[in-house]
Amino acid sequence: MKHVGLKKGRFYLSYKLHARTDPEGYCDEIAVTAANVHDSQVLLPILKKVKPSVRIFTDKGYASTKNRKLLNNQNLKDGIMNKASRNKALDHHEMKRNKIIKKTR
Fold this sequence. Notes:
- This protein is of the alpha+beta class.
- The protein has 2 helices and 5 strands.
- It has helices spanning 65-73, 92-104; strands at 3-7, 10-21, 27-34, 55-58, 77-80.
- The strands form 2 sheets. It has a 3-stranded antiparallel beta sheet, with no helix packed on it. A two-stranded parallel sheet has the order 4-5.
- The two termini are 27 Å apart.
- The model has no long low-confidence stretch (mean pLDDT 90).
């Protein structure tokens, strides 16, 4: 579970911390991964013990069809920010939704 990176001629171990917090900002669940693991691959481990009907707010790094289906299958509300595609910019409503999510998360 380590990722070795090279910076200015020196090797470094690098990790990422993924956290789920309660409404007051306290950590409920954490997952640590190597830095080269994409955010969209880590949503399932941090959703342990989440009550149904809770809205899960995340940044667009977690945006994927797989993660949206995962939330739906676990009866959780989708609060994943929308991500623009290569040839398709976000429309006005998607940008407005992202702005609301950004303030909340």
